[in-house]
Specification:
Layout lengths: L7 H26 L4 H6 L3 H23 L4 H25 L5 H7 L2 H21 L2
């Protein structure tokens, strides 16, 4: 008979809880980094912000998926998830830096869906690369 902490239901609930908590913290950090208020803009119907935020959420989920898949230990999964988040955030800042003719943050805040879509795809693409690197 397996112990309580080895039960698959308990392990799944723990990983789920950690992911949700980390996602809330990470989204709060993204909120601080952007010039606009994500949830206020989404509430107003700003689809560009919704796409950019959705890409970040999908990116985080992808990173945690790989982190959980390749680590038995919950603490290791959290560590890789945190590292992946830092890389994702760094990627967002590099994207802003490498496009000096377009103020990415400003354009997304104004509702430029093309920029929001590219931001979403960059977050998703980076998440797959980051996730594939997790061992």
């Amino acid at each position: 008979m397996e112990g309580f902490w080895e039960n698959i239901i308990v392990v799944t609930a723990a990983r789920y809880s950690v992911f949700v908590l980390c996602t809330l913290v990470f989204l709060a950090i993204f909120e601080l980094v952007t010039s606009y208020k994500n949830w206020e803009e989404i509430k107003k119907g700003n689809f560009a912000v919704a796409m950019a935020t959705g890409g970040k959420l999908f990116g985080l989920a992808t990173i945690f998926r790989y982190s959980i898949e390749h680590n038995d230990n919950l603490l290791q999964s959290m560590g890789w998830g945190l590292f992946g988040f830092v890389l994702l955030l760094f990627g967002y800042l590099i994207f802003e830096f490498l496009t000096p003719t377009i103020k990415i943050d400003e354009e997304i805040g104004k509702g430029n869906t093309a920029v929001g879509f590219i931001s979403m795809m960059i977050s998703i693409g980076l998440a797959f690369v980051i996730g594939a690197s997790i061992v």
